[in-house]
Amino acid sequence: MEQAGRRSDERAQDLQRRGNRGLAANIRADGYRLLQNLVVRKGDKKGRYFVVAGARRLAALKLLAEAGEIAKDYAVECKERGGESATEISLAENVMREEMHPVDQYEAFDALAKQGKDIADIAARFGTTETVVRKRLALALVSPVLLQHFCDENISFAIGLHRQR
Hints:
Structural class: alpha/beta
Order of helices and strands: EHHEEHEHHHHHH
């Protein structure tokens, strides 16, 4: 981790201010393991690498290191790629991702709640707010037929809730 620097065009300070605490909480809850490797390219100096995909993950790890939860030289799995493809890799990671559908979030949060996890723990574990978790869990009150229409994009979230009342 210590050898991985940020790309010159990234604003590490902005990233740290924008929710890396939630990502750090998620990494902590998963035993300080990353779900996805960092993707790096070699730097100009021997032994230095630049992160081309995973800057938020790196920033979250640095927060954990600053807090003394992991060592500053904590080993992190990385995939090395050539510099010529760095921009494309970064773009693909950030543009090609798809947010989880609210109904899928409801089902996942509901499964965790049924395991005995409380709303605050669920929110902290996934770097979201308790309000978001409550709203998703409130989908349990919506007709399964309307939920299916919402999933199929036949109706919007607001229309589905309005019809339910």
